[in-house]
Structure formats: C-alpha cells, structure tokens
Amino acid sequence: MRKIYQGAIFLILLSLTSCGAFFNQPFDTGKARIGENTSSESILTGILPVKETVVGVYKFRDQTGQYKQVENGSTFSTAVTQGGTSILLKSLEESKWFNPIERENIGNLLNERQIIRATRKEYAKNSKDKQITSIPPLLFAGIILEGGVISYDTNIITGGSGARYFGAGGSTQYREDRITIYLRAVSTSSGRILKNVYVSKTILSQGISANLFRYVNLRRLLEAETGVTKNEPAQLAVKEAIDKAVETLIIEGIIDGLWTPKGGEPIVNLIKEKYLKEKEAAASTVLLDRKLEDRRGKEAVSLSTTSNQIAGDYSNSKSHLGANLAYKFYLNKPSLNLNIGAGYFQLENEQAFKDDFVSFDVNLEYNLLPYDNVSPFVYGGIGTISDVNFSNLFVKFQYGVGVEYLPVNNFGIKIFGEQNLLLSDELDGFVQGKRDDYYWRIGVGLNFYLGKPYKKVKSVIFE
Fold it and tell me: Signal sequence span per UniProt (predicted)?
C-alpha cells in the first residue's frame, strides 16, 4: 500500500511538469521552418494607406552593449540580437504602410550599380544604342527611421515555490527580463523629428521540476527526477516589440496627419478611439501585468456569514454561525472607507453558557491594493454588543484582517477574521481573573458596490 501511495505522489508531481513538454521531448534534430509569427492583434488590421511612404533605415541595432548572463565565467555573446535593422525592415514591409529601401548596406548597392555601368559601357562600344549604359535612378526616402534597442533589464522579477514531503517534492522557478526600444521618424527634407515612440516587452523564463528519493525496502533506493524549462526567445521578443513600435508610429502619424488611411475621417476617428483606450490601459498597468484601475464604487453594501466563538471565563467554547449586514462609503482616498455594520450571532460554552447577541460596529477600513482585483485589507474600530433584549450592553473594540477578490467590477468576495475586545468581564455572566471577555469572528461575505468608481487613475508608479 505504501508503494502505491509513493507511486501516486510521483505521478502527481510528474503531471506538474507539464504533460505537453514531458511527453513531447525532442529526440532528433528539427527541420528548417518558416519563422514564427508574433501577436496578430492590431488596431490597424484591415486598414490600408492611401499611398505607401518610402522610408530608409540605415541602422537599428542593439545600443545596450550588454552580454548574456552566465553562472560561471564570461561570455562574448550579446544579450540582444544585432540584426535589429533586418527585423525592422521586415516589419515595415508587413505593415503595408511603408515602402522600405536599402540603406544599411548602401555601399554594396552603389558598387554593384557601378559594375553594371562599367559592363554596359564596355558592351556599348560595339553597339549603336547609346542608351544601353543608363540604369534607373535610385529611389530616395522622404523619411528616415532611426532608433534601436536602448535597454535590456534582467531579473526584474524572479521567484518560485516548492514543497517536499518524505523525499517526494517539486519546485517551480521563473524569471522575467525586459527590453525597451525607441523608434523615431525623421524628415529628410527638413531634418525635423516627426514622431518618436517607444515600446517595452517582457521576456519570460520558467523552470519546473519534480523528484522522488525514498527507501522502498531494505537496501532498495528509489530515485527519480524530471523537469522542464522554457525560455522565451529574445529574438521573437525583439520582433514583437519592433512590430508594436511600427504600429504605434503609424497610428500616431495618422492622428497627427502625417499619413492618411483609406476611408477618410471616419477611419481616423475609429483608430483614435481604439488607441486612446489602449493608452489608458497601458498607463494603468505596472509590473506583474497588474492593471491598476478603479474597480469599486463610492459606496457598498456588505452581507456576511460568520463563525463566532467566545473566549471568556468558561472552558469548552463552541462556534456558532451568525450574520452581518454592513454599509460602507469611501473617504478622501480610494483605499480608506468608513464601515458601519450590525450582526446577529450566538455564543456558547458547553454546559455553562449560551445566549444570542446583536452587535453594532463602526470601523475604519484600509485596502492595501485598492486598484487590484485581489486586495488585502485591515480594519479597526469601536462598537457595542448586547443580548437580544438589550438588557446588558457592553462597549467593545474590534480589529481584523481579510482579503477581497473582485471577479468583476463593483462586486467583491471577501474572507476575514477579527477579534472583539470587551471592556467588561461580564459577557458570559461570570467574573473571574483580571482579563476581560473577548470573542473571535471569522467570516465570508459579498460586497455590492454602488455608483461609479471613486476616481480615475491618472499616473502609475511601480508598486
């Protein structure tokens, strides 16, 4: 039975390593294939220009000078691809808004044209057609695109988790890097910088492993280990960032009137509306892809089911279910609110004390992450508790902690725990010792927010 148990644990840990990666391990070399595509989502999908713009790119390269990180020794391999110009030219061609011309290796092109002229001139000595030596002129660019990869930040986020039990365990690790590129359009007639944009892209690396190390019998040791790592290709990350930079350059150019889309003003307005929404979303997004936006209304009604247990002068206390109804409204900050509530519950010590109570509470509550959909909160305040006949009224203080999750805006699910401290030792009808009575409350509740969010997020900092 023990062996079956150990085998089951190992199979579970094995499944954590991703079935797709484990059962499709590469055992042979792969064939050449067409390059992978990046994200196909674009505001400009299906929108074409009235006329393509001729652009030239002399260089778009790595400007960070960074080398790859290695655990031991040193390496002269760069962290970022040096072929940024080629990637940019491909993105310009795929956008169908630009007509890129060769400028990175213009010397090779001019040399080849010179060879053509010399060859034709030699051939023309014995020919009556004197026009044979002429070749078409080169296209000239109205706009030059400049820029490059200006930043490669490593280990901006690292982490992991793991567990081990009786020689069986598993672990996960992850790391996130980030590249940033700038792209600018320069007028060749005036030298004026027409537009300047920048884009950031994260690069994710993950590792998952599981292992088993157990003595299954006398002098019989079972040891097994498996795992998989996944690293996002830096070249694809650079390509996706460049694609996004080209798209942003086109969109901002359309809004500023640098180039015109087919369809006229209605298409311009549509693009502008979508782009403003995207900018607003980007402005409220920080590390870990946390989107900082107002999710809660100015007021809320809260319904909770609680479990209550007394800690008084008697032993053998029992837990009983109760209910709470509360109303809260936000003060000057979106994270601080005033909470007014009432509750009904029962407290009991076996064969000693049992009674029904009602409570009234006033709390100040503080949300630690007010713009996230998962937010811890702390609260504290003053209140009263009495029996249902209001014959005995006691003043108390309470404090607690909890976590709220918002699956959608204006609706939250919360769990919380609190301690209620009385200023009297007579809650259970028995006075003994120096300590006043108190009771615990643990609950699960729903928050229904009313009205529009308190305020808009205008600026973002890294939290």
Answer: 1-23
Ranges of residues in the chain whose predicted pLDDT is under 50: 4-5, 13-14, 16-18, 457-463
Cβ atoms < 10 Å from Cβ of 383: 19
Residues pairing with 174 in the sheet = 159, 206
| Contact predicate 346/359, CB 8 Å | no
CA 437/CA 312 separation, integer angstroms: 5
The per-residue pLDDT for 127 is 62
Contact present, 325 and 305 (Cβ < 8 Å): no
Residue 443 confidence (pLDDT): 94
Examine residue 317 and state whether it is found in any structural domain, yes or no. Answer: yes
Tracing tokens 């003060």 back to the chain, one arrives at 331
The answer on 214 and 356 residing in a single domain is no
For residue 318 the two structure tokens come to: 């029992």
List pLDDT tens digits, range 71-116: 666 677 888 888 889 999 999 998 899 999 999 888 999 999 889 8
Name the pTM for this structure: 0.67
Question: Which amino acid makes up residue 417?
Answer: G
Angle at 199 between CA 198 and CA 202, to 5 degrees: 150
* Secondary structure class of 20 (helix, strand, coil): helix
Residue 267 is assigned to a structural domain of this protein: yes
Which residues, other chains included, contact 418 with Cβ-Cβ below 8 Å and sequence gap of 6+? Answer: 379, 398, 399, 400, 401, 440, 441, 442
CATH number at residue 284: 3.40.50.10610
Query: Which amino acid is located at 455 in the chain?
Result: K
Determine the Cα–Cα distance for residues 414 and 301; give it in Å rounded to an integer. 13
**150 and 204 housed in the same domain:** yes
